[in-house]
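Q: Here's a chain of 126 amino acids. Please give me its 3D structure as tokens.
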Amino acid sequence: MQGFTLLEIMVSVSIIALVFVSLFRMLAGTTDLALSGKFTSTAPFLARQLLADMERDIVNWSEFDGDFGENYPGYEWSCKIADGSFEGLEFLGDTDDGSLKKIDLTIWGMNKQRVYKITTWRVALE
């Protein structure tokens, strides 16, 4: 009767196990890469949308954190608005009237594992 020895079976099972471990690692890496790509394309879009909402009435803007609702679950944002300065911009003269605002916007995604930060300046017209 011919068959396989225990040693041959153990070697083949260990080779199959190594192949499966490699496949699972590759699958996990691909999934992480896909999630990263989704966040990288979605976060700037959400930042532009939020900045456009702020520009409409930046002087009276009162929200400084929140989320994007059920359309974008898992995405949250935080914002800091401070008075900017025209110092060092000689061509503007002495027009520092507090209308320049510095906006630091942070967007988190995937349970705060991914972060997108942007700093911009806007002129607040009253």
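Q: Can you summarize the key feature?
A: The CA atoms of residues 30 and 36 lie 10 Å apart.
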